[in-house]
Amino acid sequence: MTAYGLELDSIVFAYPDGERKTTASPSGDRLAGGGADTQSPPVLDGASLGVAPGAKVGILGANGSGKSTLLGIIAGLHEPRAGTVRVGDILVAKKTLKAARLRLGFVFQDPDDQLFTGSVYDDVAFGPRNAGLSDAEVRERVESALATVGIPELAERPPFRLSGGEKRMAAIATVLSMDPGILVLDEPSAALDPKARRRLIRLLSGLPQTVVIATHDLDLALDVCGRAAILHAGRVEAYGDSRAVLGDAALLERCGLEPPLSSGSCAICGRRP
Ligand SMILES: Nc1ncnc2c1ncn2[C@@H]1O[C@H](COP(=O)(O)OP(=O)(O)OP(=O)(O)O)[C@@H](O)[C@H]1O
Ligand SMILES: [Mg+2]
Hints:
binds adenosine-5'-triphosphate; 11 helices; Rossmann fold; six-stranded mixed beta sheet; alpha/beta; 36% helix; 10 strands
């Protein structure tokens, strides 16, 4: 496994649906100008972000600020209208998209989008089998991925019968079995109970890969990510050491975020943790 770096430079992106919606609107100045580029404000409008190999970065921002969209661009699911994406030394373009995608593992917000066969084993084996690995290699990849996420005993279970926390770990295993250098996760702690969330934090903190996490769980971002980026108004409004970014109350308020619980003072003794 090689942990690759990432470089997003001045990314501009708008959804075609959004453009259609705006075009159909009977009112609004945004209709002026004619061309598609002028009809809809882009979700991302000059977003830049550099992630060093092996770094763990939290992507934060209010609802609708473009976190999932940015992850989709990193993962090659959306093509930016302008700007460039580099995955390691690969400049992402039509010709290089396949090679870039092989370096990345994308974990969807909803594990049900990732788990679709009759057993956890088959789901985790899906990628390696598709890549043409031998049965022995596939078994090795699956066993290693399930051991890493701590659910080897669930291999033969149907995914739809797993708990939310177990599904999350199985979904991460489906990506780890492809041995990606970069892991991209969208809201990985959503709907997890405290114990499952703790287990997830331990897992993510210990992974050797470059990890990019979009999350509203600012405490998870503090625990797992050395750096945090805040998306606001289509740009990366702030990017730096997680403690510094998440400790900046004025910045958080400006970007529609609340300070993480762990950064507050103790209600009893007044000390900060
Ligand atoms: N498929 C789509 N078609 C049109 N507009 C979309 C689509 N997906 C997202 N959007 C819009 O793009 C903007 C950014 O959405 P995105 O899902 O990236 O935000 P987010 O930061 O991930 O939000 P959340 O915190 O709610 O997950 C929103 O205004 C949303 O309505
Ligand atoms: Mg989202």
